[in-house]
């Protein structure tokens, strides 16, 4: 059973210091931070929210959590999922306990001067709040790509998007998402501020000793392909396979069928290619509960043949790693040859910048926010053109100089994004809302 989302609220106090953003933010400086903050190493939004709260602390903000889940760990996670919040009682639990806590806190203004909501997923809190409210919108993909979402999810999404116009300020993680809101919602353009995501500094280039350790213990036996690549790098051997990394979910807009066709084409051209899939395993239902793109017959009429971790599609080998931790993902960014990210639609596209931080060349779609985020540190292709994707991947495979250029430009591009900058823009937005 899926874990029912649990609200977490934070109340923070800004100390009075020499920095104008902090010293003049408000007379009684308290804010609520509403987000998805339970510990989960595999869910990007939760990691982002935790990082933002940590950055607020580095600015001197004292953070207090008003609602808690049990501590992280397998045992506690199972208790959260199967005992505290089982699916059959989730609605009752949420309405009878959590929502009452939320309502009381948000309707009593002496608790806080401002509420910040970390995602459009939680926009249903806006009408509950009797204090000024700001919110971050990551994307509005459901307008153009409802595939992968159930009808019930889409109805809830529409209700929440409708509430955005009632927020005092809306942050978006890219200018692309800002333009989408202006075109497709009633949110005033004057209310919308672009505030790009930061990238966790844990993503980095591994040194030789770390790669040596990986060759001995490659993240457990299920990651043999990682150990093989690590041994090749340590021994200076000629790399025998061209490892194309795909990271993320399998919903339709991720456009995996085009990637499958491109990898198949590379194989026909004689490239010894292996596709490494991290995230939602190929062939499973998407996280939303609906059928994923990879389970449909839009990959050329053939379903994948699964053999444990290995999947064979049109004779091309795919390594199905499943969900990986941030440490494991960092390792994959270091040991694969290229990131392929052919998505039709992204509000930001964090894997692109994560890969760039690790020195991994990126071949990405030229759609939505991706050119804005990838900058000149990536190669681009039409997301509907599998041959164009194959061409760009082949360029990376054959051209050592190009790989070096993409690495250097990727490092430079990734420097544009940090959580410190993100929180700075948040605080200036809070200052604007509160009239200081």
From TrEMBL:
Domain Glycosyl transferase family stretches: 237-410
Gene3D superfamilies in alphabetical order: Glycogen Phosphorylase B
InterPro entries, alphabetized: Glyco_trans_1, Glyco_trans_4-like_N
Pfam families the UniProt entry points to: Glyco_transf_4 (PF13439), Glycos_transf_1 (PF00534)
GO molecular function: glycosyltransferase activity
UniProt entry keywords in alphabetical sequence: Transferase
Residue ranges constituting the Glycosyltransferase subfamily 4-like N-terminal domain according to the UniProt record: 122-201
Keyword Ribonucleoprotein: no
Composition bias type Basic and acidic residues, residue spans: 294-306
Residue numbers spanned by region Disordered: 282-306
Record CDD domains: GT4_MtfB-like
Protein's name in the database: D-inositol 3-phosphate glycosyltransferase
Species this protein is from: Pontiella sulfatireligans
Classification of source organism: Bacteria, Pseudomonadati, Kiritimatiellota, Kiritimatiellia, Kiritimatiellales
């Amino acid at each position: 059973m899926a874990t029912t989302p649990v609200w977490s609220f934070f109340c923070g106090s800004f100390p009075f210091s020499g920095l104008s953003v902090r010293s003049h933010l408000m007379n009684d400086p308290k804010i609520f931070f509403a987000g998805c903050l339970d510990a989960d190493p595999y869910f990007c939004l939760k990691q982002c929210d935790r990082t933002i709260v940590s950055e607020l602390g580095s600015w001197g903000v004292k953070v207090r959590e008003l609602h808690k889940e049990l501590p992280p760990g397998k045992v506690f996670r199972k208790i959260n999922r199967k005992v505290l919040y089982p699916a059959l009682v989730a609605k009752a639990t949420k309405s009878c306990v959590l929502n009452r806590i939320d309502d009381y806190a948000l309707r009593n203004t002496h608790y806080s001067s401002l509420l910040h909501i970390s995602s459009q997923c939680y926009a249903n809190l806006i009408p509950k709040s009797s204090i000024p409210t700001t919110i971050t919108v990551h994307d509005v993909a459901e307008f153009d790509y409802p595939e992968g979402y159930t009808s019930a999810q889409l109805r809830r999404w529409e209700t929440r998007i409708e509430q955005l116009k009632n927020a005092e300020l809306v942050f978006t993680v890219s200018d692309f998402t800002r333009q989408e809101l202006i075109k497709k919602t009633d949110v005033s353009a004057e209310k919308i501020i672009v505030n790009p995501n930061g990238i966790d500094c844990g993503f980095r280039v591994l040194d030789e000793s770390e790669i040596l350790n990986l060759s001995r213990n490659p993240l457990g036996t299920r990651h043999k392909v990682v150990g093989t690549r690590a041994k090749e790098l340590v021994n200076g051997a000629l790399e025998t396979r061209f490892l194309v990394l795909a990271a993320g979910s399998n919903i339709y807009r991720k456009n995996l069928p085009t990637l499958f066709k491109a990898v198949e084409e590379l194989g026909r051209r004689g490239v010894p290619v292996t596709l490494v899939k991290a995230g939602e395993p190929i062939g499973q239902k998407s996280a939303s509960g609906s059928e994923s793109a990879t389970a449909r017959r839009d990959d050329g009429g053939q379903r994948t043949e699964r053999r444990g971790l290995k999947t064979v599609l049109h004779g091309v080998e795919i390594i199905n790693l499943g969900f990986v931790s941030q440490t494991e993902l960092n390792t994959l960014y270091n040991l694969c040859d290229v990131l392929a990210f052919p998505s039709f639609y992204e509000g930001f596209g964090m894997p692109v910048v994560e890969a760039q931080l690790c020195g991994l060349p990126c071949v990405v779609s030229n759609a939505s926010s991706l050119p804005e985020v990838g900058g000149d540190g990536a190669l681009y292709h039409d997301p509907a053109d599998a041959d164009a994707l194959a061409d760009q991947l082949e360029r990376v495979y054959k051209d050592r100089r190009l790989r070096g250029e993409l690495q250097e430009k990727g490092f430079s591009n990734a420097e544009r994004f940090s959580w410190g900058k993100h929180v700075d823009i948040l605080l200036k937005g809070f200052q604007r809302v509160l009239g200081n």
